[in-house]
UniProtKB/TrEMBL annotation:
Residue span, PTS EIIA type-2 domain: 507-652
InterPro entries the record matches: BglG_antiterminators, PRD, PRD_sf, PTrfase/Anion_transptr, PTS_EIIA_type-2_dom, WH-like_DNA-bd_sf
Keyword Transmembrane helix belongs to the record: no
Location of the PRD domain: 290-396
Protein name listed in UniProt: Lichenan operon transcriptional antiterminator
GO biological process, one term: regulation of DNA-templated transcription
Transmembrane segments: none
Organism: Microbacterium immunditiarum
PANTHER family in UniProt: CRYPTIC BETA-GLUCOSIDE BGL OPERON ANTITERMINATOR (PTHR30185), TRANSCRIPTIONAL REGULATOR MANR (PTHR30185:SF12)
Keywords carried by this UniProt record: Repeat
Domain of life: Bacteria
Lineage: Bacteria, Bacillati, Actinomycetota, Actinomycetes, Micrococcales
Length: 652
């Protein structure tokens, strides 16, 4: 657990990219500031004499050596996690099993400690198809080669951060005598080039996961553990991909893969990392021809429902086709329980919560129609499809109106306007040019005033001083001010909405305000949802059925959209009126795979459907800023304090 918390601390610092206080890190990890200091010491020891985390008066900050510290393996030697992985490898390597007492002696631990480690191995086996059998002093894994590889895949993912492909971590999972890391760079490059040459679009996010499976296959075959031939005829596409993998494995890895392995790996490639090429290309036509009409119909229906529920423009034939092809591949992965990792899951959820919510709605519908249970990483791939479609349809964000003040001298003002249009056309729209040296400042009511002369005393932020010949510094300054003005407008709208939705009686301090029976529920999230929901039921906002639907939504995908905020809610907008119940946790509490300090149970009514996007996205935006969260949590001793601090944060 200590190593995992160290890695999580380092991951938080890397994502923030700035100074973070010990108190904020302690809240995020659920530990004390003293523990944070010890974690930083241990992290720096991994890369000594370099420094992965620097400290200062403002807290801690990741350095350029942070990535090396995340990959560092020696500090794990002899730890419970290292023993666990060693134990799994020994169980996988010997079909007759291991002698518990001899293994304990070789690992320099007691038999009781090894028994505890074996219990942890059992915890890894869920969903793999493997079982751990114990007969007196012997323990062995029972299951197919596919199931054993599934366990290796889980072990490797456990070693890697956020699903990213790391050959050093992979070799720790497979053993130091596995296929060398140097071979896989050229292998992956050649594979992408060859697949692209066949007209496929290659998913670089997913291919790292497939290369990991190829590494596992190469290692198992090298140790005399090939997959048996599954039988049946390969499709034309599968045959093409199998030929490529077989030739590259022999040339780059020095391993000859049999037909069973090639069938398995080519299926992984076709279901995880390639998509049809341009319209009319041979791969595109073949993909369209093999699309199951029932899958396409299910996807179209779910997409139409999502578009109506969230008022988003995603019902387009090309989008439905692309998503249906993805879902068909997804169904095959579900059958094999071979889920695809997505390293962008966390950032997609925190940065684009509305898009992720649409993806969760679609995933829920697909689970209902096709019986496909979807983990967060797979939902994130659906979110990428949704986000891509919305980006294609998205109108440019509303431009800010700008007036240029530039005293006339030949065509100087015309040149300046041309420069502004060319350099800032995506941020501002010039609606007027003042060429007088003494303009009537009071009459200029545009969003921005870009002036080459001194603005009036006491001018607001909308007045930006620029040079007659626009410089890069001018451009950056105008863009920054425009961004702040747009954000300020969004948050002012949010403040207006939120003040209508809060009620003093729907405010809890967690966990002390929970009912006794709520704290006994498992998982803990459900107890909090029920406690907050009870306050809204008492106000006549929702019924008990809404609470159950909110819990169902939570089971689909954690609603912890940031490192500090969870927003549980039901997918259907069935509340009598829109309201938000707030729970403040200090210290932080576990939620999903992380920890949060603020829980906002949101109940939306049908009448506020159009406000959903504004409130949902911008509420998450406010709580994505660590300093704002700490300010609100520390001072929100009651509802009045919470609302005052929230409004102060929104108003800047």
């Amino acid at each position: 657990m200590t190593r995992a918390r160290q890695d999580r601390l380092l991951g938080l610092l890397v994502r923030d990219g700035d100074w973070v206080t010990a108190a904020a890190l302690a809240d995020a990890l659920g530990v004390t500031p003293r523990s944070v200091r010890s974690y930083v010491t241990a992290i720096n020891a991994r890369v000594a004499p370099a420094v992965a985390v620097e400290s200062g008066p403002r807290g801690y900050r990741a350095t350029t050596d942070a990535a090396a510290a995340l990959r560092a393996g020696p500090s794990d030697e002899g730890t419970p996690r290292d023993r666990l992985h060693t134990l799994v490898r020994r169980l996988l390597d010997d079909s007759d099993g291991i002698d518990v007492f001899e293994t304990a002696e070789s690992l320099f631990v007691s038999p009781a400690t090894l028994d505890a480690d074996l219990a942890r191995v059992r915890g890894l086996l869920g969903g793999t198809g493997l079982t751990l059998e114990r007969s007196q002093s012997r323990a062995r894994l029972v299951g197919t080669e596919v199931a054993q590889r599934r366990l290796l895949s889980r072990l490797a993912h456990d070693e890697m951060d956020a699903g990213s492909f790391d050959l050093v971590a992979l070799r720790r999972s497979l053993g130091e005598d596995s296929v060398g890391a140097r071979a896989f760079g050229p292998f992956k490059t050649d594979l992408v080039e060859r697949l692209s040459g066949l007209g496929w679009f290659v998913n670089e996010i997913g291919i790292a996961d497939v290369v990991m499976h190829i590494a596992i296959a190469a290692d198992r075959v090298a140790h005399g553990r090939p997959l048996e031939n599954a039988g049946g005829e390969d499709s034309a596409s599968q045959g093409e991909v199998a030929d490529i993998i077989g030739e590259l494995a022999e040339r780059r890895l020095g391993v000859r893969l049999g037909r069973g392995d090639l069938q398995h790996l080519s299926t992984l490639v076709l279901t995880r990392v390639v998509a049809p090429g341009a319209s009319g290309s041979a791969p595109g036509e073949r993909a369209r021809a093999r699309l199951d009409p029932d899958v396409e119909a299910a996807v179209r229906e779910v997409v139409e429902r999502a578009a109506a529920e969230f008022l988003v423009d995603i019902v387009h034939p090309d989008f439905v086709l692309r998503l249906a092809l993805h879902v068909q591949n997804l169904a095959r992965r579900a059958q094999e329980r071979a889920w695809s990792r997505n390293p962008l899951t966390r950032s997609l959820k925190s940065t684009y919560p509305m898009i992720f919510e649409v993806a969760v709605f679609i995933a829920s519908g697909l689970q209902e129609r096709l019986g496909i249970p979807l983990p967060d990483d797979e939902i994130a791939y659906i979110a990428m499809h949704v986000g891509g479609q919305l980006e294609r349809n998205r109108h440019a964000e509303q431009l800010l109106a700008a007036t240029i003040v530039c005293p006339g001298y030949y065509e100087l003002h015309e040149l300046l306007r041309s420069s502004v249009d060319r350099s800032l056309g995506r941020a501002v729209e010039v609606v007027g040019v003042e060429t007088r040296v003494d303009p009537d400042w009071e009459s200029i009511d545009s969003d921005l005033v870009l002036t080459t002369i001194d603005p009036p005393p006491g001018h607001g932020e909308r007045f930006v001083r620029i040079k007659p010949f626009l410089t890069e510094a001018d451009i950056e300054r105008v863009q920054a001010v425009a961004s702040r003005i747009r954000r300020s407008r969004r948050l002012r709208r949010l403040r207006t909405e939120l003040e209508r939705y809060f009620d003093p009686s729907a405010f809890l301090r967690l966990p002390e305000d929970l009912e006794p029976d709520a704290t006994d529920r498992s998982p803990a999230e459900e107890g909090v949802i029920r406690a907050l929901g009870a306050r809204l039921v008492a106000l006549g906002v929702i019924d008990e059925a809404y609470i159950e639907r909110a819990i169902e939504r939570e089971r689909l995908s954690s609603t912890a959209f940031t490192d500090a905020l969870a927003v549980p809610h039901a997918l259907a907008m069935t509340a009598a009126r829109t309201a938000i119940a707030i729970g403040i946790a200090e210290p932080s509490m576990p939620w999903g795979e992380g920890r949060v300090q603020v829980v906002a149970l949101v109940a939306f009514s049908e009448a506020d459907r159009e406000a959903f996007q504004t409130v949902f996205e911008q509420f998450v935006e406010v709580f994505s800023e660590r300093d704002s969260v700490q300010r609100i949590v520390r001072r929100a001793t009651d509802f009045g304090g919470f609302l005052d601090e929230l409004v102060a944060v929104i108003d800047g």
